[in-house]
Amino acid sequence: MNMRKKIGNILTYIGIACILVIVLFPILWAVTTSLKTGRQAQSIPPVWLFRPSFHNYIAAFVKRNFGRLLVNSLIVSLSATFLSVILGSLAGYALARFQIKGKNLILMWILSIRMFPPIAAIIPFFLLYNKLGLIDTRLGLIIAYTAFNLPFAVWIMQGFFLEVPRELDEAALIDGCSPWRVFFKIVLPLSAPGLVATAIFTLIFSWNEFMFALILSRSRSQTMPVGVM
């Protein structure tokens, strides 16, 4: 019995070790690649033994004005996240609580926008921004990121609001709460996990976004993914 338990423990540890290797290998690969020269990083087969070089870090932190890139990314990502969560919560609450004609059609339309390839909208965005003078501005990136993150926020928050019992809304209204107070004091706090999840995903999407930042920004509003490229 003890032998079987030992074998089971060994197999468990081997499985955990394999999972750790699979999970950590991409991180190790990224770190080692950052310490290679351009030729070493692009060589096939890969160079495993090399002399570490910090030239890439010097270029990113000093030559590329890392501080400005970081500030731009923080302002754009946090602003887009804030707007997406606020607007998504309001729209999601309306779809979850009110009887709206064609609600299912609206939800499918929102979901289809989320699945819409951003590359198909980049040229219209560029032409519109060029007319409005929003090229190379943080505001332009914030609007673009919010537009593409908002459908996701609406869809997620609508699902969380549906889990909050309507009886709580009715009880609060009977006690004299206004509809806005019911939303902010009752429903929204109970949907806090949804708010946090939506904010995290939206922040990640906004921080990692590359294509819009590449096309719609130049030097003043460049974000981290474009600046360190």
Q: What is the name of the CATH architecture of the largest domain?
A: Orthogonal Bundle
Alpha carbon gap, first and last residue? 57 Å
What portion of residues is helical?
over 70%
The CATH topology of the largest domain is given as MetI-like fold
Number of domains: 2
Q: How many DSSP E strands? A: 0
Write a structural description:
It is a single chain. The chain is an all-alpha fold. The chain has 2 domains: 2-53, no CATH class; 61-227, MetI-like fold (Orthogonal Bundle). The chain has 12 helices and no strands. The chain has helices at 2-34, 38-42, 55-63, 66-97, 103-115, 122-132, 138-162, 166-174, 179-190, 192-208, 211-216, 224-227. Helix 8 (166-174) runs antiparallel to helix 9. The radius of gyration is 24 Å and the shape is flat. The N and C termini lie far apart (57 Å).
Which SSEs are present, and which pair or pack?
Layout: H1 2-34, H2 38-42, H3 55-63, H4 66-97, H5 103-115, H6 122-132, H7 138-162, H8 166-174, H9 179-190, H10 192-208, H11 211-216, H12 224-227
